[in-house]
Here is the input.
Amino acid sequence: MLALLPWICLLLPYVYSKARALDVLNLGEQTAAGLGAPVEKERLALLASAVGLAGTSVAVSGGIGFIGLIGPHLARRLVGPQHRLLLPTSALTGSLLLIVADTIGRWILEPSEIPAGIVAAVIGAPYFLYLLARR
Here is the structure.
């Protein structure tokens, strides 16, 4: 768990400080370039930050993929597209989903338990299919 701490302390504040750049990049490449944003530089730096955070999180906690897919979509429906609110809400939503999945996994087969990743996939798959069908 301590292996995750330096990555979070360095990259999370950086990504949060780039919330406006994320909002501008969300408008599209041409619009962002027209507004004066260094599109390639920002995209590369933010992609490297996302890979660093995701890679260390998976290395510490294991693969719980549906949390990373469903959490941000639920958060966007709750707070809208502004990244200043979306980033912390995504983290809290993902944390809450994982806690719920772990609790359900421990409760269903009480003497033993179901891994949280499997429960998260069972919970998240219908919502993910709903999102795919909606678009």
Remarks:
- The helical segments are 5-17, 19-25, 29-34, 39-61, 65-79, 83-108, 116-134.
- The chain has seven helices and no strands.
- The chain has two domains: 1-62, 63-135.
